[in-house]
Amino acid sequence: MKVILEPQVKILKEDQSKLNLLIENITPALANSLRRTVLAEVPVMAIDDIVILENSSVLYDEILAHRIGLVPLVNDYDEIRAALEEDPLALREKEVAFVLDVVAEDEEKTVYSSDLKPKALEEEVKVSKVIRPASGKIPLVKLARGQRIVLEAYAHYGLGKQHAKWQPVSVAAFKYLPVISIDREKCILCGQCVEECPRKVFEMKEEGVSVSNPYVCSLCMSCVKICPTAAIKVRGREDAFIFKIESIGVLPPRDAFILSILVLKYKVRNFKKILERVVVGQETAS
Q1: CA gap 58, 60 in Å, rounded
Q2: Rounded to an integer, what distance in angstroms lies between the CA atom of residue 272 and that of residue 251?
Q3: pLDDT per residue over 142-172, tens digit each?
């Protein structure tokens, strides 16, 4: 009987926009589920409804609306997490409004994403301080002298599988954990593997060739092919994976990954409820 080990997670590298993880004791199927979920199933807010009141710029209304819709918005992690733990369908009712009113009076003027200002939908409704453009330096259109744009933009929750603007990350990929072994008896210290490796995984030391950074290995097998004595063996562990996640500012990569796990947990809970109803229904019928 095969023993199922508890998954182990190790953070290899993390900053505001990138996250590298090592996850051990999981199957390729689960690894791919996490990758697909963080790309396509995590609900995030993006602008998908625009009312243009005035547009005398060179851009057609449709092109301008498309550009604004692709502006990434900073999302409220706490709101999304709370919904996933209780009822994700509640996010359908959420809405954040923005207004944009820019005129080029005396000279040319570039309209940026920072010109999108939050607007309360109703009187006495607090304006969200979280939902805002991830970057205020995204150019939308250039206005000539005397031109003006006035519009209202409404953001709603959606999924990446519906449209790319609802993707919380730009990159979600994984690879097998490289396992590199060197047969010291066969190695002749020629150094060809050190020169050939595109990722500089190997390092020549006094005691011989050593593996300095196995995590960056791309499993290209260049070292195996170039070694004249077949002293190097490289394989990928099928129960350990290195994840790479890159954010575009919608959510920190760690938060996006955590939310993807909550999405999978919600799907499992929902499936369990449906299965229980089916089983109970069959027992009642019999």
Answers
A1: 7
A2: 29
A3: 999 999 999 999 999 999 999 999 999 999 9
Taking residue 84's Cβ as centre, other Cβ atoms within 10 Å add up to 21
**Is residue 35 a contact partner of residue 173, using CB atoms and an 8 Å limit?**
yes
The structure tokens listed for 102 are 């820019």
Report if pTM > 0.85: yes
Which structure tokens are listed for 70?
A: 């692709």
Contacts of 141 (CB under 8 A, 6+ apart): 57, 58, 59, 64, 67, 110, 111, 149
Evaluate whether 32 touches 169 at the Cβ level (below 8 Å): no
Q: What is the CATH number of domain 48-161?
A: 2.170.120.12
Compute how many other C-beta atoms are within 10 angstroms of the C-beta atom of residue 284: 7
What are 205's two structure tokens?
Answer: 């030391």
| Beta-carbon-side half-sphere exposure of residue 46 (alpha carbons within 13 Å) | 26
One-letter amino acid of 275: L
